[in-house]
Amino acid sequence: MIKAILIFNNHGKPRLSKFYEHFNEDIEQQIIRETFHLVSKRDENVCNFLEGGMLIGGSDYKLIYRHYATLYFVFCVDSSESELGILDLIQVFVETLDKCFENVCELDLIFHVDKVHHILAEMVMGGMVLETNMNEIITQVDLQNKMEKSELLLADKCSFA
Amino acid sequence: MALKIVKGSIDRMFDKNLQDLVRGIRNHKEDEAKYISTCIDEIKQELKQDNIAVKANAVCKLTYLQMLGYDVSWAAFNIVEVMSSSKFTYKRIGYLAASQCFHESTDVIMLTTNQIRKDLSSPNQYDTGVALTGLSCFVTPDLARDLANDIMTLMSHTKPYIRKKAVLIMYKVFLKYPESLRPAFPRLKEKLEDPDPGVQSAAVNVICELARRNPKNYLSLAPLFFKLMTSSTNNWVLIKIIKLFGALTPLEPRLGKKLIEPLTNLIHSTSAMSLLYECVNTVIAVLISLSSGMPNHSASIQLCVQKLRILIEDSDQNLKYLGLLAMSKILKTHPKSVQSHKDLILQCLDDKDESIRLRALDLLYGMVSKKNLMEIVKKLMLHVDKAEGTTYRDELLTKIIDICSQSNYQYITNFEWYISILVELTRLEGTRHGHLIASQMLDVAIRVKAIRVFAVAQMATLLDNAHMLTGNTQRNGICEVLYAAAWICGEFSEHLENPMETLEAMLRPKVATLPGHIQAVYVQNAAKLFATVLKSQEGNTDSTTAQEASQLMIDRLPLFVQSANLEVQERASCILQLVKYIQKLQQKDVEVSEEVCALFAGELNPVAPKAQKKVPIPDGLDLDAWINEPPSESESEDEQPKAIFSKEEPKHSRPRHTEVDEKELARRREARKQEQANNPFYIKASPSSQKVYQETPGVEHIPVVQIDLSVPLKVPGLPMSDQYVKLEEERRQKERAEKKKKDKKKRKEKRSGRGKKHDSGPESEEDITPAHMVDIVTEEMPENALPSDDDERDPADPHKALDIDLDNLESAGKRPLADSEKLPVRSHRAAEVLKSPAEDEEGENVSSLEPKKKSSKEKREKKKDKDKDRKKSKEEKKKKKHKHEEKEEADLLCGQADEPAFQSEETNEVVTPPTSTSADVSDLDFWLSNAPVPSNTQEAATVAAAEAAPAPGAISVTTPDSEPEEPKDTEMEETKSSKHKKKKQKREKEDKEKKKKKKHHHHHHHHGDKGGEESVQNGTVEEEEPLPPMSNYCLLAENSYIKVAYDIQGNLQDGSQVVVSVIFENKCDSFLKSMEFNVLDSLNSKLQRPEGSGPHDSLTIPFQLPPGVSNEARFVFTVQSIIMPQKLKGTLTFIVKNEESSTHEKLDFKLHFTCTSYLITTPCYSDAFAKLLESGDLKSSSIRLEGVNMPFHHLLARICFHHHFSVVERIDSCASMYSRSIQGHHVCLLVKISSQTVSVDAKCDEPTLLGNVLDEIKQTFSQC
């Protein structure tokens, strides 16, 4: 199970936070801060696994992260997930974002966090991996976006009719 | 209306959207909080508008603010509004917001039930998808219960996109509503073979997650997963399955054997590192599970270790990390294979990556030996000095202590060195583990008697330099060490060189700044020291020192008397008064030292941590029973213990108080006593807790080692453990030289004083003798301590509720779903007629306010093609159903459970064959017992799978899930009536099944060894007291080396075979090997020997027994006549091997084949039973048992368990029971009990057999 997915930048500013278990807002912020603290002090060429922080998880949980340019992608998972598998999943996630936003950069995530959420929802659901095939994910996301567009067009037409 | 919309959209143009909000926040870096608060005010305004687009926009912004840490729960209702928009765009925004901020205690969630249900059945797959995604994040027990059925329907949706989401969310539903697991499981299992890989993957995911927590319930799926593993190419699925197998193998070693080959093939063939790694991991799990049985898998271990070495040597740090992680798993069972890579692991200890260093540290645990412990610890100490973060340093500290103290200090040869390491560790700044060091100091000082002199000296210096530990407030954790130091100095004060000095150190004013519990120990031990000082001055004409000591105490103790800590205060004032009195006596020149010493006489022995838990409850003591009637509510107020300074209650105002009579007083006294007894701080007057004063002879006789005075007693601050390393080196060299001259045996004698465990060091460990004769005192355990399970599960674990037996579901109808187990289905209410869409929206609000009322207004427009699909699937289902119905009828008629095909014919009799569970097990057994040849395996797997295949379809007859299609039909009336009919049919069926279920329960009474517990679990004897544990194994033979117990069971498949399970338990300290088992065959009974061996050859037992280990072997015997009991003589030969010698030993035994052992537990239905009795072929006989003093259900359970009967029917104190012999004799019993007399009337077609069985039953009850 995946317990949480966090994206934050090099300064610890959250860009996306998805908790699959409820915490209240303060604790969530604390977790993000702590995770950032743990992850950011690690060198570039060390391993991508980190035994969990104090707040989230416990002994069964691990932080698995990747660092891309200005962003950290951190997954907090328990022992039922394959470590290397999750690393691949992060890669798929980032590649999908890249396809959906056309050369994704931090700004895309800043201004379109809702879209990132929708993409993520096609990959991970309730803490379990739903789909790992990038093409399938992109197809579903595109179809939903199309639907959204047609609805908006319709709405605009209605309102000005 | 139109105007409103126009107005709304114009408003919208001026509203901030999410992008504007983000931009705004970025532009207000200085006063971000202020800016956001104005934004929130705007959002509140927007939420008040009617326009849903505006609301959605506002909710979208709130979701962003939530991520930044703002509480947005106040907008929960608005979120629900947006969720219920008919537009996908807004719905998605609403569900996203809900998934981010709703949780179980959000109260508006209960308003959403109907909305979610509507979305789930929406014709638009993305509406459904979005609802499922959202629900997965905020599902509550109520939602799970109300929606379980809808989601289950979606598991068979035509679109794989919906199917996979529905399958995945079921896991969350199970967690919140465990009752749904049984009804949903067959369909979930079906999805494992879904044509869509995504759905399949989701199903694997869910089952793996379930199986991880309760693996035993999913063992029967092993063949199916095996098939998936060999056929799937999806690495995600493979990884999950392989992980699942890793969890299953510990439960079923045969599974492991089957897995090894395909897994090794995968290891060799795959290019995906992730898959390779998981394969290695599971192979390790397999090897661990096999390690007890057969040690001949060195090739696989080598392969694993070799692959892991490649991973560790890889430049990719991730692989290195994982390699070390997996290595630590091998370490537990095959330490030697890991030890050969010590170089690599020690190298990783220097890695720049902390994660890797930590993993390497874990491995060190298994790397140490007597030889290298000092060297490794020295290295770790260097790391401690260099370490930056406290976490890593603390980890190092615990690891050092762990590896040193492991298996009773096995590897420590020099305890002086260890004590000095501990003292050095006290210099660590800011560690959290002061108490750990302290407990080690205490443990070593108490248990290693020879080290006490040294330890006391060290502790005295520590106390003297206490300021170094307490000086820095940051180092607070470490002051725990002083607790140990003070206690050791006090308790073993006879070893102190200068007790007076230490006494002074312990009474310094600075001590008052320490935490209370440490001060208390200081005060108490100061008194002990004082006693020692007095004693040392005894007989000394000059009494000044003694008087000085008294004066010191009297001067310093008042400081502690003023302490705010009650414990300190009490002890100090007590001791102060005592010392004052002593001083008076001293002034009169009275010898007091002996009396004072008597206060602290006696030795404290270490007690095992679990000792308290293991004290057996004496017979006849019921801890749950009230000793006195509980005081009533109102009185309990009076009885409550009052806080010391609490206000006096105006008691006099209560008139009742004056009326208290004698009895009442006595009762209260009793209650108070009980309360005191439960209060750990109340010192009881029980005789056992008092110290017995006696001169302990033990202490004097311990050879006290002369400390080499070339080693200066050090002041903390200087590293000194290194010196011991050097000294130890020299000592070892000297010893080696000496040893050459010495006779080997002499050394043995010297070492024999130590516990057995300490001798078993690896390699040439034996060459190193400890520096001193170390007498490690073992921890005390209560007499006749019960072995108990240690790992109890956390009661709060949500997965506990999911520990549900699913096997019964698999084979048709054996323990079918009971009525109560079905998922709640919406019931249609006639009053609610279809509404026009306009009304609909209004109605929505109304109904959402009354969530409990189940509405049924959803109507679905079905596309034509969809309809077609449905029809098709329906037809298929019907076919299946039909097929199954036939099958079930057959089932009901002759009570035939589905047996593996190959034997169904011969068992086709009136009498029922074994139940489904055993059939299932034999299915699995059949699959597992296949030779592990790959082609064969594949076949077997498919056969097994094919056999299991009809099951999921079959169960749908009893589950409601075949129905939900119908309510959606537009013609309500028709549906209703047809439903009605169906229900009737169903009810009938269910009644029958319920009956069956009953029987099934009874059957559980006596299934295998677990009979006792299981019957309780299943709830048949809920109100009755639980059964005592029972075992069928009885002692075969025993001598000082080995204990052999056996149990005989009939073989179902062969009427002339019985299986004898024999447990061999090694009782001695030596290795038992080359065990051979032989029996002198009689004409009637013969031991089956492998082909080609003679009738007198013995069978080699395929395992060896290390000390303390037991293992089981099975032998098959052929018997001709089963009507008489029989005894066979036999011998067991084995070689006892220990370090110096190996001897050949022999043990004779008599194997007793009782007639009971030829009986097989066979359930029988009452109608079949009645027929049998009517047939008149049976001869009858009867016995009476007098003075049976046990509940009737215990009696029945005993007969069931020990004599392999099953209960057919039980009415009050009368029960009919049935069993069948391996050769098909029917044995029927009628058991009645009336006031301690049990009468057993029996019928059987073979009178001799019956007579013998009855005799055996009689014997069973005469024994208890």
TrEMBL record, chain A:
<dbReference type="GO" id="GO:0006886">
    <property type="term" value="P:intracellular protein transport"/>
</dbReference>
<feature type="domain" description="AP complex mu/sigma subunit">
    <location>
        <begin position="1"/>
        <end position="147"/>
    </location>
</feature>
<dbReference type="GO" id="GO:0006896">
    <property type="term" value="P:Golgi to vacuole transport"/>
</dbReference>
<dbReference type="GO" id="GO:0005794">
    <property type="term" value="C:Golgi apparatus"/>
</dbReference>
<dbReference type="InterPro" id="IPR027155">
    <property type="entry name" value="APS3"/>
</dbReference>
<protein>
    <recommendedName>
        <fullName>AP complex subunit sigma</fullName>
    </recommendedName>
</protein>
<dbReference type="InterPro" id="IPR016635">
    <property type="entry name" value="AP_complex_ssu"/>
</dbReference>
<comment type="function">
    <text>Part of the AP-3 complex, an adaptor-related complex which is not clathrin-associated. The complex is associated with the Golgi region as well as more peripheral structures. It facilitates the budding of vesicles from the Golgi membrane and may be directly involved in trafficking to lysosomes. In concert with the BLOC-1 complex, AP-3 is required to target cargos into vesicles assembled at cell bodies for delivery into neurites and nerve terminals.</text>
</comment>
<dbReference type="GO" id="GO:0030659">
    <property type="term" value="C:cytoplasmic vesicle membrane"/>
</dbReference>
<keyword id="KW-0968">Cytoplasmic vesicle</keyword>
<keyword id="KW-0333">Golgi apparatus</keyword>
<dbReference type="InterPro" id="IPR022775">
    <property type="entry name" value="AP_mu_sigma_su"/>
</dbReference>
<dbReference type="InterPro" id="IPR000804">
    <property type="entry name" value="Clathrin_sm-chain_CS"/>
</dbReference>
<keyword id="KW-0472">Membrane</keyword>
<dbReference type="Pfam" id="PF01217">
    <property type="entry name" value="Clat_adaptor_s"/>
</dbReference>
<keyword id="KW-0813">Transport</keyword>
<keyword id="KW-0653">Protein transport</keyword>
<dbReference type="GO" id="GO:0030123">
    <property type="term" value="C:AP-3 adaptor complex"/>
</dbReference>
<dbReference type="InterPro" id="IPR011012">
    <property type="entry name" value="Longin-like_dom_sf"/>
</dbReference>
<comment type="similarity">
    <text>Belongs to the adaptor complexes small subunit family.</text>
</comment>
TrEMBL record, chain B:
<dbReference type="GO" id="GO:0048499">
    <property type="term" value="P:synaptic vesicle membrane organization"/>
</dbReference>
<dbReference type="GO" id="GO:0006623">
    <property type="term" value="P:protein targeting to vacuole"/>
</dbReference>
<feature type="region of interest" description="Disordered">
    <location>
        <begin position="714"/>
        <end position="1027"/>
    </location>
</feature>
<feature type="compositionally biased region" description="Basic residues">
    <location>
        <begin position="741"/>
        <end position="757"/>
    </location>
</feature>
<dbReference type="GO" id="GO:0016182">
    <property type="term" value="P:synaptic vesicle budding from endosome"/>
</dbReference>
<dbReference type="Pfam" id="PF06375">
    <property type="entry name" value="AP3D1"/>
</dbReference>
<feature type="domain" description="AP-3 complex subunit delta">
    <location>
        <begin position="660"/>
        <end position="807"/>
    </location>
</feature>
<dbReference type="GO" id="GO:0048490">
    <property type="term" value="P:anterograde synaptic vesicle transport"/>
</dbReference>
<dbReference type="InterPro" id="IPR011989">
    <property type="entry name" value="ARM-like"/>
</dbReference>
<feature type="compositionally biased region" description="Acidic residues">
    <location>
        <begin position="777"/>
        <end position="794"/>
    </location>
</feature>
<dbReference type="GO" id="GO:0045634">
    <property type="term" value="P:regulation of melanocyte differentiation"/>
</dbReference>
<keyword id="KW-0677">Repeat</keyword>
<keyword id="KW-0597">Phosphoprotein</keyword>
<dbReference type="GO" id="GO:1904115">
    <property type="term" value="C:axon cytoplasm"/>
</dbReference>
<feature type="compositionally biased region" description="Basic and acidic residues">
    <location>
        <begin position="725"/>
        <end position="740"/>
    </location>
</feature>
<keyword id="KW-0175">Coiled coil</keyword>
<keyword id="KW-0653">Protein transport</keyword>
<dbReference type="GO" id="GO:0000139">
    <property type="term" value="C:Golgi membrane"/>
</dbReference>
<comment type="function">
    <text>Part of the AP-3 complex, an adaptor-related complex which is not clathrin-associated. The complex is associated with the Golgi region as well as more peripheral structures. It facilitates the budding of vesicles from the Golgi membrane and may be directly involved in trafficking to lysosomes. Involved in process of CD8+ T-cell and NK cell degranulation. In concert with the BLOC-1 complex, AP-3 is required to target cargos into vesicles assembled at cell bodies for delivery into neurites and nerve terminals.</text>
</comment>
<dbReference type="InterPro" id="IPR002553">
    <property type="entry name" value="Clathrin/coatomer_adapt-like_N"/>
</dbReference>
<dbReference type="Pfam" id="PF01602">
    <property type="entry name" value="Adaptin_N"/>
</dbReference>
<dbReference type="InterPro" id="IPR016024">
    <property type="entry name" value="ARM-type_fold"/>
</dbReference>
